[in-house]
Amino acid sequence: MLKNYLKIAWRNLIKNKVFSIANIVGLTCAFAVAILLSMTALFELSFDQFHENKDSAYQLYLTNQTPRGTESSTSSPVPLAGALKEEVPGIKRTTRTLSEDALVSYKEKDFSLDGEYVDPDFFNIFTFPVIAGNSENPFSSKSSVSITQETALKIFGTTDVVGEVIQIRTGAVEHPFTIASILENIPSNSSMDFDIAIPFENHPEYANNMDRWDSQFHLVYLELEDGVTPEQFEKNTREFTSIHYKGSIENAIRDGAVANADGLYKQFHLQPIADIHFTSFATGTAEVKRTFPYMILGIAFVILFIVCANFINMNIALNEKRLKEIGMRKTLGAVKQQLFFQFWMESLLVFMISIFLGLVLGNLLLEPFKSLFNTRATLDYVTQPGILLIFALSIFCITLIAGGYPALLMSRLGTLRALKGKLDLGKNRLRNSLIVLQFAIAILLISGTLVLHGQIEFMRNKDLGYNKEQVISIPLNGKKDSYRAIELLRDELKSNTQILNISGADNNLGLGRDGSAMSSMMGFDYQGRGVVTNAITVDYDYAKTLDLELVAGRMFSRDFAADSLSLVINETMAKQLGQDDPLSVRIPMDESITYSVVGVVKDYNFQDISKQVSPLTLFMNQDWDLYYAYVKIAPENIAESFDAVERAWKKIEPQAEFLGSFLDENVDRTFKREKTMATIITSGSILGILLSCIGLFAISMLVVAQRTKEIGVRKVIGASVASVALLLTKDFLKLVGLAFIIATPISWYFLNDWLQNYASHVSLSPWFFLGAGLTATFIAFLTVGSRTVRAASANPVKSLRNE
């Protein structure tokens, strides 16, 4: 029986070649794309799921009630972790962590590595397996370190290096460290990525801040004891917080802060480590948003829906030609179940062929897909037993719905109606509903694409308040003192007329090639109230190099020896100080040192460009290190000037890698996620509209075939080609118009909500939605019109003769 089902199914596929090919091509493309998109989404959702203690390990953060509202901080003071474990019940382990570049030397070779300063319990809280050395205690002493397999191969060429000694620069001094253990390479789905783990006590800021609660610069993670919940932990820390943060709580009350719902001004919270990759603190509290992977899965789903809708429509339309066959089978004794399985088997055969071809195509497109969408996902994420079972069930459900519905519709027909060749589908309501839904989805994707690209261009072309096209930022990752390195760079390039200015700072603008980003905040009392500001340490010529606009006073100058006690602030900081003349402000940072404001610069985006410009204070104190050099070049011969800067750097720091990049490149890297989203949605909209058009073209062919006699009669009585083509086309265009009416308000709602994540964004113009609607209408018109014009141009004698 099964053999007969397959034989008849194959014959019908061959008989209707055009429609079979249309279905197989559409399904193949949809399955290939769905596999690749699902792979990417599952990779994103797998972040930090490999940690064995993921259900009991958390990141600590503190919410602060301020006059500006609720603010959150993940940075903690050095003594906090130890004090928490001693004074707060329910904590099993704690660890401090701080990510910072580590300059490692071995046999006169220098290596810039991603370092992680951690406490020993770090390896008990997180799952980073030790493959060589002491797995129970990866740090045998304060002067020992752990490195990954990849790092061992990079430095030594082998992983058998336990006991080897390397030099690590901590602060301004190099110290010897012994390699105590080798770790497995950090998984690609880990939020924490490092090459070398160093005992926290070796950090240069550790000794000076051992007992200070007002200096916060590292993260704290902890593991709770069995049975202790995060809510219990939060309650247990209330008394602890009131004791250790008494002064800052009193200041918050003095400044007019409003207590939270629990009547507290500071409160510790826990964030599960499995959620860290998706957590944002933009609103003052931790928000977990898995929007990106769910959006990818959603696009995969709608692509499958579009192609399945095509399949249903074409199957129902094609099966109208087989009504007499159904009637004859029923007359000869065929039962409903036999007819159902025959039609379902034909659908299942198409799906099986398409799934096989989709797997082949997906594998062929894997590497280009990974490059295009900048993902490290692999097909391993979709070949896990659980995922394969879900896919198998999904395919079964899809075939049951997409193939089974037409089969059920045909098998339930009465014998007489089938023999008469009549199929009443309620004026094609199902077909029309599916077409409307397909094009509504396509219009949603197109409008999303237009708005996303508009927002990216808006951010790319936004005036950030500084010169980003002509300035190169260079991480100071060499051995020389940062100020000395910048001075040598000035000397090396002073004869080059294309080099206009050189300066430095302790933070980068945008995201450089080194992948690091740094921010520093400080607070102080001014005229009886608390003031919070971002702080950046800079070198001479900072404003001149970046083309910052000075609105009052002056910048730091070599002519003023006391500028180490001077400040330059931005306009937002000046407003926060509330003085008519900000140059008259004197700020006592502690009992013995007072800083004077000597200049005010116009606000510029020194942070993520999606944020509002915050208060900023510039310092110039050569006791504080710089981490980046800035080089401004002339707009002519940019490539030659960049090469000259690179040569000068290699001469100054021959062992250090040159990681210079233009600031506009750095800014582009900060919205990499937006560009990836735009690429995915653009690709999804293109594929969605193409698949919709494949179905629309096939349906239009069947409609034209059904109205052949009508076309011939209209031509005989004088109808023009244009009028006949319009008659056949307008019904489809009405469906696209209805899809536009449905999709536009939905699209506006979601896009408007998404744009609220940006402090400044593109305006949601009606042209975005009109453009999406007109694009869908134009493509649909070309798809249907090409077929209808051909039918309307045919000789009416041939049309009538066929009848």
UniProtKB/TrEMBL annotation:
Transmembrane segments: 21-43, 294-318, 339-366, 386-409, 430-452, 680-705, 732-751, 763-784
Compartments where located: Cell membrane
Main location (coarse class): membrane
Topology term for the membrane: Multi-pass membrane protein
Keywords attached to this entry: Cell membrane, Membrane, Transmembrane, Transmembrane helix
Record-annotated ABC3 transporter permease C-terminal domain positions: 299-413, 685-796
MacB-like periplasmic core domain boundaries: 29-238, 526-636
InterPro entries assigned: ABC3_permease_C (IPR003838), MacB_PCD (IPR025857), Macrolide_Exporter_MacB (IPR050250)
PANTHER family, alphabetized: ABC-TYPE MACROLIDE FAMILY EXPORT SYSTEM PERMEASE COMPONENT 2, MEMBRANE COMPONENT OF TRANSPORTER-RELATED
Full protein name: ABC transporter permease
